Request: fold
Amino acid sequence: MIRVERFSVDKYPFARIHGIDLKKVTASSDRETLRRLMEIHGVLVFPNQNLLPEDEVRVNQAFGYHDETQSKFGFGFNS
Reply:
């Protein structure tokens, strides 16, 4: 079960999301839930996730953000 904690830093809202394993997210399984949470909170934080680049691509696809023509992975401080 997904649990949402709402926060605000200065005047900027965000939410910490618990109860979801991002390694298991697929475009069809969680797309609407994640998009709805993004629309409501703007920024989502998923603590305690240990993702490989391939996992991050899958999450990006669930949000509709991944470019299929991308041939090089660059994530976090490596991008």
